[in-house]
Design goal:
The chain contains nine helices and eight strands. The strands form two sheets. The protein has a five-stranded mixed β-barrel with strand order 1-2-3-5-4. It has a three-stranded antiparallel β-sheet with strand order 7-6-8. The protein has two domains: 76 residues, OB fold (Dihydrolipoamide Acetyltransferase, E2P), CATH 2.40.50; 167 residues, Recombination protein O, C-terminal domain (de novo design (two linked rop proteins), Up-down Bundle), CATH 1.20.1440.120. By secondary structure, the chain is of the alpha+beta class. The longest helix has 19 residues.
Length: 255
């Protein structure tokens, strides 16, 4: 049986780049098909009907045709454009971070069931939730579950002892929390407070309905952010771009 030459998919635009005189190269995450690269021909022309449906962080229903090297977007209809993100640079940067993680943790045409829905719901939450930092911490934990890099937060990764409610250590290299007895000798271990660990464990085991009621102090937010960035950088073996820009925004007057 001949393979189909065209598919209709729901997808979120993770990133894009200009290509040629009027085309645009898209990296999308599609429900049921995973990450794909596609070319949108003529989309940069002033009268293109597809342009507004293929913006960064837009969810759209796409008709993709199989090209020689890339899929070709032949039709596009926006499902959700998330205008609340585009009106707030801080929220948009958090959303770009969520997309960057989805991009870096996936390979082309590798589907992770649940990831499309998680990303779509995270963009919705970032539009309206009063604490976007909480939204992305929850997203990080759920994403790591889906792609197979769940950090161990319940037992010491060195000796296996159950973690007690006291200051601990966390080792990105070993993939989880280290008890005080083992922390001094664990590779790359750094201290983690009781509150930071408690909230991370809460995000790891809870639905968003439960997680959304958390109210971490600002210092705890920054501690969790630093810890997760260390872990994600180690797993990916590269630094992420969006967190650097987000830190720059925080240093601006009035932010």
């Amino acid at each position: 049986m001949a393979k189909p030459r065209a598919w209709t998919v729901e997808a979120i635009v993770l990133r894009h780049a200009d290509f040629g005189e009027a085309d645009r190269l898209l990296v999308i995450y599609a429900r049921g098909r995973g990450k794909l690269r596609a070319i949108a021909k003529g989309v940069r022309r002033p009268l293109s009907r597809k342009a507004g449906h293929l913006d960064l962080l837009t969810a759209a229903r796409l008709l993709l045709a199989q090209g020689r090297d890339l899929f070709v977007v032949t039709q596009a209809e926006a499902i959700a454009t998330f205008p609340g993100l585009r009106e707030d640079l801080g929220r948009f940067t958090h959303a770009a971070y969520a997309a960057e993680l989805a991009d870096k943790f996936t390979y082309e045409e590798e589907e992770h069931p649940g990831l499309y829905r998680l990303l779509f719901e995270t963009l919705q939450r970032l539009e309206s939730h009063p604490d976007p930092d909480l939204v992305v911490r929850y997203y990080e934990m759920r994403l790591l579950d889906l792609v197979g890099f769940r950090p161990e937060l319940q037992q010491c990764v060195v000796c296996g002892e159950t973690i007690k409610p006291e200051p601990q250590f966390f080792s990105p290299m070993l993939g989880g929390v280290v008890c005080p007895r083992c922390g001094g000798e664990a590779a790359g271990a750094r201290p983690v407070s009781v509150d930071a660990l408690r909230y991370l464990r809460h995000f790891q085991r809870s639905s968003f309905q439960g997680a959304r009621r958390a109210r971490p102090a600002e210092a705890v937010h920054r501690e969790m952010e630093s810890l997760m960035q260390g872990y994600l950088t180690h797993v990916l073996e590269r630094r992420l771009n969006s967190p650097v820009f987000l830190q720059h925004l925080r240093r601006l007057p009035g932010e």
